[in-house]
């Protein structure tokens, strides 16, 4: 029953989850697609990339491929998108993982020489690629509001942490972790910028995340936070050692002490 004007109004006024729901709607019009591209929100953009029925022009799709440089979750759906051209596939090829590289080569029968050139060009471009700016105050307020709403409705659970990261929303992940564990947001931000991934491990253990799920969480946090928290392989080993035979309450207490929380 909702028309394009209704959806555009909701895009401006409603929550992030409403925007994601709109991006997933069948046969989405080009006007709404353009509005989504203007937001540049990772979660909404990822939902749009998975919408094969949306009216996405070649210009819009090309812009989405460019966004996939920084929004990891967009890469897989874009590689399978029916409107992806061979030129866009070459561009996408330069920043995807090995499995998607194989899929792109098989789908488009790409020339290895052309790919080598594209990779070299991308390397030069990435050398001067600026990092993402700090979280804007408006987006930060939206993330905090969403978490508070989910918590008040009894729907905020630890599984939301992994979902937020898979949709490329690191700030929402931090707000969720802070709310679930009663942690200070500023302390969590400082921890993920450190060389001590074991602090993040303790915080996650404190909200019921297990060792297996944390391995994925740490990889995604590093992807979205310029490979921080650091520590390399040794840091990973220390982080995995933080999942000892103790309950979440003990893990929270250990985090608060180790992170110098009051």
Task: Outline the structure in words.
With 262 residues, the chain is mainly α. It folds into two domains: 4-127; 137-258, no CATH class. Helices cover 67% and strands 0% of the residues. It has 17 helices and no strands. Helix 14 packs parallel to helix 16 (232-241). The model is unreliable at 124-133 (pLDDT under 50).
Descriptive key words:
0% strand, 2 domains, 262 residues, mainly alpha
Number of helices: 17
Q: Helix content range of the residues, please? A: 55-70%
Structural class: mainly alpha
| Domain unit count | 2
The main β sheet shows up as: none
Strand fraction: under 5%
Quick summary of this structure?
This protein has 262 residues and is mostly helical.
Helix and strand layout, with pairings?
Layout: H1 4-13, H2 16-23, H3 30-39, H4 42-49, H5 58-67, H6 75-80, H7 86-93, H8 98-108, H9 112-127, H10 137-152, H11 159-166, H12 170-181, H13 185-192, H14 197-205, H15 211-224, H16 232-241, H17 248-258
Helix pairs in contact: 1-3, 2-4, 7-8, 10-12, 11-12, 11-15, 14-16, 14-17
């Amino acid at each position: 029953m909702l028309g394009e004007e209704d959806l555009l109004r909701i895009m401006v006024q409603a929550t992030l989850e409403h925007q994601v729901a709109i991006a997933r709607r069948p046969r989405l019009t080009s006007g709404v697609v353009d509005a989504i591209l203007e937001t540049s929100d990772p979660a909404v953009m990822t939902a749009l990339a998975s919408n094969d029925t949306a009216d996405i022009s070649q210009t819009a799709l090309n812009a989405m491929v460019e966004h996939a440089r920084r929004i990891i979750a967009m890469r897989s759906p874009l590689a399978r998108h029916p409107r992806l051209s061979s030129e866009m596939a070459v561009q996408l090829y330069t920043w995807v993982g090995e499995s998607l590289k194989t899929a792109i080569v098989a789908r488009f029968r790409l020339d290895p020489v052309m790919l080598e050139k594209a990779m070299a060009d991308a390397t030069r471009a990435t050398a001067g690629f600026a990092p993402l700016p700090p979280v804007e105050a408006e987006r930060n307020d939206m993330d905090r509001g969403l978490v508070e709403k989910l918590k008040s409705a009894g729907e905020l659970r630890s599984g939301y942490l992994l979902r937020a990261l898979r949709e490329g929303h690191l700030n929402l992940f931090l707000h969720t972790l802070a709310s679930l564990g009663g942690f200070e947001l500023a302390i969590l931000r400082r921890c993920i910028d450190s060389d001590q991934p074991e602090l993040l491990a303790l915080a996650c253990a404190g909200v019921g995340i297990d060792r297996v799920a944390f391995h994925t969480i740490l990889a995604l946090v590093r992807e979205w936070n310029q490979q921080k928290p650091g520590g390399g392989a040794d840091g990973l080993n220390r982080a995995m050692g933080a999942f000892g035979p103790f309950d979440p309450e003990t893990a929270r207490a250990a985090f608060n002490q180790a992170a110098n929380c009051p």
